[in-house]
Design a protein that fits this description.
By secondary structure, the protein is α/β, with parallel strands linked by helices. It is built from 7 helices and 12 strands.
Length: about 280
């Protein structure tokens, strides 16, 4: 009987012991310090932000150094300096003359060459109609010219001077007249003179075969242009109106004369191209 009672007491006491142990464990858990998750996350985030900022600062520093080196090489270093000045399109002008006027010093950093200023200096040469200046990396300045093409030669200020199709008087000559250049007689040669423009308009409108027969062109006024042919005949051109039509009619008329279909006259009047007069 006592054995059974002992066993019963042990079984009954066991839940009490477990209950006490649970209370002690809960007490310890309540007394243990608890670290909230928020501050730890904020600290990790702050460390990551700081690391990113450091990498950014380092990257900016490296970039600044590279840019400084590149700037020095480009603007001051000898690697990209002017070694040659190349002149393209020069025919009547000597390349050396163009280079001298351009004023580009060898050794100047190519990036520092003022191409507009160089073009302005070269453009002051009377023979230059247009000019373009470019950089040819790593060390060449390229000057591309378009020279004026002489159409006529005129006596001006006691000298024989070439004139382009726009009426610009640009070069004095002392020797023979260039091929295809026609003597021009006007009182005030120049691009702003109406008589000059009318006479040159007639010359440039003619087809090559007819133009080759010209020995001179004169204009007392813009409405009184006359052409002289190699056989001594005179062509009364008149004004600058209907220039292309007059050139077409004159070419056809000369062909008919050469073929014997039309009796030649000393004066060919094409001033009214739809009613040609031969005298």
């Amino acid at each position: 009987m006592s054995r059974v009672g002992t066993t019963t007491n042990d079984r009954a006491g066991s839940p009490r012991r477990r209950s006490g142990s649970s209370r002690r464990q809960a007490s310890r858990e309540q007394s243990a310090p608890v670290t909230p998750l928020g501050p730890r996350r904020r600290r990790r985030s702050a460390r990551r932000t700081l690391a990113r900022r450091r990498r950014l600062v380092v990257g900016l520093g490296v970039t600044a150094v590279l840019l400084a080196v590149a700037g020095w090489v480009l603007l001051a270093g000898p690697l990209l300096a002017v070694r040659t000045v190349q002149v393209d399109g020069a025919a009547r002008l000597a390349a050396g003359e163009v280079v001298g006027v351009a004023g580009v010093e060898v050794g100047t950093p190519l990036a520092r060459v003022d191409t507009d200023a160089v073009a302005a200096r070269v453009g002051q040469l009377p023979q230059v109609a247009s000019v373009e200046v470019t950089r040819g990396w790593p060390g060449t300045v390229v000057i591309t010219l378009q020279e004026r093409v002489p159409v006529a030669v005129v006596r001006s200020e006691g000298a024989r001077r070439l004139v382009d199709a726009g009426g610009v008087v640009f070069e004095t000559i002392t020797g023979s007249t260039p091929d295809g250049v026609v003597p021009l007689e006007v009182s005030a040669p120049g691009p702003d003179d109406d008589a000059t423009r009318a006479a040159l308009g007639a010359v440039t409108a003619l087809p090559g075969a007819v133009r080759a027969q010209l020995t001179g062109v004169a204009a007392r006024t813009a409405d009184d242009v006359t052409l002289t042919l190699t056989d001594g005949r005179t062509v009364r051109w008149g004004s600058a109106d209907r220039t292309d039509r007059k050139a077409e009619v004159l070419a056809a008329l000369l062909q008919q004369i050469d073929a014997g279909a039309v009796e030649p006259g000393a004066l060919l009047d094409v001033s009214t191209p739809d009613a040609v007069v031969l005298r």
